[in-house]
Amino acid sequence: GLPVELQIEGEPLPLPAGVDLTAYRLVQEGLTNALKHARAQRAHVLVRYGAGDIEVTVRDDGEGAASGDGGGHGLIGMRERVAVYGGELEAGPQAEGGFRLRAKLPVVPE
Questions:
Q1: Global confidence as pTM
Q2: 3-state secondary structure the chain
Q3: pLDDT digits (tens, 9 = 90+) for 1-31
Q4: Distance in angstroms (rounded) separating the CA atoms of residues 35 and 50
């Protein structure tokens, strides 16, 4: 396993099913990458509820990406999934080491 710290900010709000699943998959993929590829020792997950959006960030203390271009197939799939809902995705190595995956998804009530 991988020790993970979870931080939730803001007032949780009901999410449309597709946005909820996308947020879940982003966390899942981010933690899988931290464990399998980055050889991380720990990870941090932040879920921030804003006014009309949700932000999900997964950071780790691993080796980061060899090329910081975020060109892996998992990242391509995440970019596509986030784009379907009009969101934005950032992924890449952190200046202080490790890797960060951050997505912001608009929340429009169903």
A1: 0.88
A2: CCCEEEEEECCCCCCCHHHHHHHHHHHHHHHHHHHHCCCCCCEEEEEEECCCEEEEEEEECCCCCCCCCCCCHHHHHHHHHHHHCCCEEEEEECCCCCEEEEEEEECCCC
A3: 899 999 999 999 899 999 999 999 999 999 9
A4: 29
